[in-house]
């Protein structure tokens, strides 16, 4: 299943959770990590579990939970509480390598059995680039990662802190500096290599919807599917930007049709432009993405 917009909601805010449930986001991420203060961790855990239990129909919008990182002792109690509400998946932050994902997969298996949930039903979305070490371990995903891993995103804020950077952007152009572009590229390639959905990073300036749209379109051109949101106002823009337009679908269909009508031809001219096998593959990808998005309803 494709998820275009992943809206973060602090796990200790009943008001925002209720608001999120009414929002256009394809998935909510109920957060137990950075958006929850230390003295509210237990409250957030209970509230998140109760919210999950009260919202078992996930047909329009999935409900995920971001737990604390595995090297934090809060992570296991987070997980034990969240699983009681049968979340669609767990977002795992500050991952160092595929070993962390596989460890979470093992924990999930035990907890699913305890809860009587079907084994393998809880998926994983990892935040793959928040630590310095994570930039050196992308190859570990190719050595074997749990097939619970269905989505991967990157992050520039925690990574900046871990790298000792005082900023992650070029102050003149506003563009990400090299280490962050490397993180983005490696996240994209790794996610695609292991058949997970590559998810674009959050735009923190949540009132600037023009910047958000431009960033979504840039991400989509590069190969990302969907984006993290932190404010309900961002979801519609993200959904729209990641939904192929009618023109794009018509153009892709034309490429597919022309190749189908000319069996045996590897290269074809359409409207004065050359098309060959990679373009045909892209056209098929776009049509399949469009179909999957239609099925979201
Ligand atoms: N999910 C659901 N509802 C949200 C929301 C969110 N992420 N962010 C804001 N809202 C609600 C607010 O409660 C408010 O509703 P209300 O008027 O009925 O109370 C409405 O949307 C408008 O909010 P607004 O005033 O524009 O924003 P804010 O100043 O209250 O909040 C943030 C700004 C950044 C604190 C808030 O958007 C937020 O908590 N975002 C998520 C942060 C997070 O989870 N970070 C971790 C991942 S990086
Ligand atoms: Mg963070």
What does this protein look like?
With 297 residues, the chain is an alpha/beta fold. The protein folds into two domains: 5-241, TIM Barrel (Alpha-Beta Barrel), CATH 3.20.20.60; 246-294, no CATH class. The chain has helices spanning 14-21, 41-54, 75-83, 98-115, 139-142, 157-163, 178-193, 209-222, 235-241, 246-261, 277-294; strands at 5-10, 27-31, 62-66, 89-92, 123-127, 149-153, 197-199, 227-229, 268-270, 273-275. The protein has an eight-stranded parallel β-sheet. Strands 9-10 form a two-stranded antiparallel sheet. The two termini are 12 Å apart. Magnesium ion binds next to α6.
Identify the notable features of this structure and list them briefly:
297 residues, binds magnesium ion, alpha/beta, two-stranded antiparallel ribbon, 14% strand, 10 strands, globular, TIM Barrel, binds coenzyme A
Number of strands: 10
Distance between the termini: 12 Å
Fill in the CATH topology of the largest domain: TIM Barrel
Number of helices: 11
Topology:
Blueprint: E1 5-10, H1 14-21, E2 27-31, H2 41-54, E3 62-66, H3 75-83, E4 89-92, H4 98-115, E5 123-127, H5 139-142, E6 149-153, H6 157-163, H7 178-193, E7 197-199, H8 209-222, E8 227-229, H9 235-241, H10 246-261, E9 268-270, E10 273-275, H11 277-294
Parallel strand pairs: 1-2, 1-8, 2-3, 3-4, 4-5, 5-6, 6-7
Antiparallel strand pairs: 9-10
């Amino acid at each position: 299943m494709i998820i275009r917009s992943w809206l973060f909601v602090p796990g200790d805010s009943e008001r925002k959770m209720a608001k999120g449930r009414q929002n256009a986001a394809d998935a909510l991420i109920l957060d137990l990590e950075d958006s929850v203060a230390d003295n509210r961790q237990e409250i957030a855990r209970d509230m998140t579990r109760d919210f999950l239990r009260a919202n078992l129909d996930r047909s329009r919008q999935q409900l995920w939970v971001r737990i604390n990182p595995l090297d934090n002792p809060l992570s296991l109690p987070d997980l034990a509480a969240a699983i009681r509400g049968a979340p669609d998946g767990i977002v795992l932050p500050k991952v160092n390598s595929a070993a962390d994902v596989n460890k979470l997969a093992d924990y999930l298996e035990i907890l699913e059995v305890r809860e009587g949930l079907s084994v393998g039903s809880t998926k994983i979305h990892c935040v793959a680039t928040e630590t310095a070490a994570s930039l050196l371990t992308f190859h570990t995903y190719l050595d074997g990662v749990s097939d619970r891993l269905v989505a991967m995103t990157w992050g520039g804020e925690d990574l900046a802190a871990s790298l000792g950077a005082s900023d992650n952007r070029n102050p003149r152009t506003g563009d990400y500096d090299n280490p962050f572009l490397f993180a983005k590229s490696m996240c994209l390639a790794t996610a695609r290599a292991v058949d997970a959905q590559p998810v674009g990073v959050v735009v923190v300036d949540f009132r600037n919807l023009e910047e958000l749209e431009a960033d979504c379109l840039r991400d989509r051109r590069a190969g990302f599917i969907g984006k993290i949101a932190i404010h309900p106002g961002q979801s519609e823009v993200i959904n729209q930007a990641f939904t192929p337009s009618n023109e794009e679908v018509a153009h892709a269909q034309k490429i597919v049709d022309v190749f189908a009508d000319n069996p045996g031809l590897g290269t074809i001219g359409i409207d004065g432009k050359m098309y060959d096998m990679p373009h045909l593959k892209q056209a098929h990808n776009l049509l399949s993405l469009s179909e999957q998005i239609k099925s979201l309803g």
